[in-house]
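Subject: two folds for Thursday's group meeting

Dear M.,

Sorry for the delay on this. The cluster queue was jammed most of the week, so I only got both jobs back this morning. I'm pasting them in the order they finished. Each block is the input sequence followed by the predicted structure tokens. Could you check whether the formatting survives your parser before we put anything on slides? The first protein is the one we discussed after the seminar.
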Amino acid sequence: MDHAATTPLHPEVLEAMLPYFGLNFGNPSSLHSYGRRARQAITEARDQIAVLLGCSPKQLVFTSGGTESDNLAILGSLDAVNPHGKSHMITTQIEHQAVLSACGHLESRGYEVTYLPVDSYGRVSTRDLLAALRPTTALVSVMYGNNEVGTIQPIDEIGAICREHDILLHVDAVQALGIIPMNLSVLPVDLVSFSAHKINGPKGCGLLYYANGIPLNPQLYGGNQERSKRAGTENVAAIVGFAKAIQLATDSQVVKQQHIAELRELFVTSLISEIGKDGFEINGHPEHYLPHILNLSFTGLDKAILLMKLDLVGIAASAGSACTSGALEDSHVLIAMGHSSDHVKSSIRFSFGYETTEEIVLDVTQKIGTIVRRLRKTN
């Protein structure tokens, strides 16, 4: 129940990758036949992904993951426009640490960053965005769907504002890929980050879309790979796997989304039957949310104890982002949403994947109910 952290490799993805661990091991920059076969595999993967995402293959850069894609988008675009006096960017208080840490690095270099607040549902106000704009604003970075509570941001409206004011828009779409249908030729965005391992692809492979004409300075220096935007020998097997994962994720996407939404609803109704509707609270937006993410607060209980009890009965869940939850820190997302300390300290994120079934959901909610009842009786 922690697919938002990572997902198991799909068997068909593994099958597509295997040849590039064996016979087709060549360096794609080599000119001999081994290298040419590897280069052809990358070209075909890029072409396939471009069709699925509605963009040109020339607009896609393969990276090592969502974090590198975020960093390349933010640091690379601002480095490119800074000589023109554009030294201000806008983001939100609930972004992934890959974005927030990159913004912190920019501030240490003299850039100015505005962190927009969110409402109690975790949504940004376009009015606040408009008020934060400056003549020196170069970039806005907003997550498509939040990785902790699932709230979806009004990207179309934000994109329209950015276009009107000639400001670049970067979107971290790591959690949205495979859930929200995307046509990058229509969506009003300039830079979009993706990651393979969130959609049953391999770890260590990411993707950055950048629109035509977008200034982007590389952040790694070496060879001329990825059209000189990202130096380093490409991870051929992972790139091939990523393409297959996107294909699987986008096939019958609407049907799959509806199935996940039904699992989420079953989880909630089943848990209500176990501990009552007052036994927990749902965090996030009631309408605009990623269906595979469900963040719950069990007020009065401690998330560390809850997670331990869940793990003992074979349930994997999370206290928040996998990049920070190892220390069980309080969620900066829930804090930004204005929740009380008790509420934040009792929050658990559950998330669903393609292999999650109704039987699994019912088993999990029954076990959660048993654990919560025992803990509350003890307290």
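Second protein, same layout:
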Amino acid sequence: MNLSIFLLALSMAASLPLSAATPNVIIIMADDQGYQDLGCFGSPKIKTPHIDQMAKEGMRFTDFYSGASVCTPSRAALLTGCYASRVGNLGVLFPQDARGLNPTEITIAELLKTKGYATACIGKWHLGHHKQFLPTSQGFDTYYGVPYSNDMTLDPTQPLANDIALREGVTAESIKTHQKKNLVPLMRDTEIIEYPVDQNTLTKRYTEEAIKFITTNKEKPFFIYLPHSMPHIPVYASPEFEGKSEIGLYGDSIEELDWSTGQISETLRKLKLDQNTLVIYTSDNGPWKLDQNSWEKGNTNRQVGGFAHPLRGYKFSRLEGGMRVPTVMWWPGRIPADKTCGEVVASMDFFATCAEISGAELPTDRVIDGKSLVALLEAKEGAKSPHDALFYRTEAVRSGKWKLIKGQLYDLEVDIGEATNLAEKHPDVVTRLSALLAAHKKDLAENTRPPGGGQKKPRKPKNKK
């Protein structure tokens, strides 16, 4: 090849868009982390230097919403790109539940596998613990983690690995009937490999599993969904982090999540994958409303929640503190550095975003509610929220700066804490948003897909004494 041809080829290669190489995707999701509980979101006591650095090198989203204010529906929305009410309307699942995310749904993992991605789910699943609902039946090549919340129990009918590690006096015989709150199993694919899992080590072990997967699959595109078990109560941290933060175990667990995120980003840099990997850090919903000031009293109780300031409300609520969560996205060379996005976006938008950056085709046989965020990620001039309206399940709606909830109207641009009801001053806005909410409910009634395992059986009424 002569010099002129070489220089021309080099010039053409340099001009190719960054999306020419199929990008990797890593979604890191904390469990019940409050809006304020990152340094880059204003935490005065919790130190998160690695995620803060991601924000400096990437983009911070201040008006980002989870799919629900509790675990299971939030995860269903993220993975399917749909409102949780559309994909089975699942509530929080427990070990005695026979239901889960319908295997006929298309997850981000299944979407990306059409483009040759290796896929892994590492962490808390909580979309059904029976085989037909587990990650390996929902597009993931591998699964390693706890199948539901860490404050639950064991389903003794789940299959056990031949080499299962039994702890805390549990035996092969006693495990068949063993059910004790806060003692949960660790799974590999579809089998329990440890019971009860040592919760102090979960964050560290999830991190090691993620780094191993990245290293093994560095030569091809990969997708890692890493939903951490922490800081859901009971809160745990490894010995290296316990007692490290200024606010007790809750802060310790967040600081370990920050360390974990730093380990992952450092691995990407070391393997020269950072400029071809989108990394997202977010939370599944807001924090528990517990004793947020217990750290000031020297309390080391594991039942401690986080901080949603300056938002109002907590987990379980449709107020901002229940569903607006701290979110940072990082993709060196693709996402401009040190940017803040105040547009209204949601976790269900990850589905369409992954489709666009990977070249995968969106399904055409079903409603997909999420929209691509690529224009916002690239900070394109004039890029706006892809949503004319965003719904908090079926109880509230946000359109632009306005939010309507239970007949109350708030201007979130000037009243982020939802303190001043403006419904009487702006009846026209109330009418418009009420119509949007009514239309959304009608759409869901006409276009809702069933959960896996059928509808929830009604609970038998308790006998009145």
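Two things I noticed about the second structure. Residues 1-20, 458-465 have pLDDT under 50 and may be disordered. The chain has ten helices and 17 strands.

Cheers,
T.
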